[in-house]
Amino acid sequence: MTHPNAASRPTQAVVLAGGQGSRLRPYTDDRPKPMVEIPGTGTPIIGHQLAWLAEEGVTDVVVSCGHLAEVLQKWLDSADLPLSVRTVVETEPLGRGGGLKYAAAHLPHPDRPWYATNGDIWTRFSLRDMADFHTERDAVATLALARPRIPWGAVRTDGFGHITDFIEAPPSTFEINAGVYVFSPEFAGMLPERGDHERTTFPRLARERKLAGFTIPQGSYWRAIDTAKDLTEAAKELAGLGR
């Protein structure tokens, strides 16, 4: 039996792959951040993302390139990809919101919903569930939310200032924007031509109660690859997952 929301689940996505990745040097000296390989997999971050999107029913992806775009385009041309990929290059910096708007203009179905993901996110969870959540809340935009682990050891104290416990890398008490989104068709028209939508469009939608937050289910894998340490951690976790 087909799920009642199946028709409203996106089959198109934008991957934002234009970042400099300066904190990942020297890995990013000769390639953009999404082209950095997850150690032990033989595949760059974007390769894992495209495989995940395809598994979740996506057939068309627009990859927005910037820094060292030709390296990414060359890899995409030579790779055996599970979906159709088109690349667009920002000729001038448009900011996060402007870049998203520019990429969205190249989606094959402007009248249908779409996913977007930052090019440095390594994750696995059900995008179909997230799309259904988006539809059920009648949202214009839905953000995936993650509860990252704090990279430091934490301490617990009692009311008298005595330390009672040490907790190694505890989960944050706050949820953060996990860099994966579901957008309704009208969202693209609300984006700024240039500038940051997280300072303009998102707050406006939040005031209108049209912005939803989908918490990534507990036990699902999520990591932003920002530093060399993230790469080693990802490889370790991967070995542990047996994937």
Automatic annotation (TrEMBL):
Keyword set, alphabetical order: Transferase
GO terms, molecular function: transferase activity
InterPro entries xref list: Mannose-1P_guanyltransferase, NTP_transferase_dom, Nucleotide-diphossugar_trans
Pfam families in UniProt: NTP_transferase (PF00483)
Domain Nucleotidyl transferase: 13-238
Keyword Transferase: yes
Name this polypeptide is given: Guanyltransferase
Species of the source: Streptomyces bungoensis
Lineage, uppermost ranks: Bacteria, Bacillati, Actinomycetota, Actinomycetes, Kitasatosporales
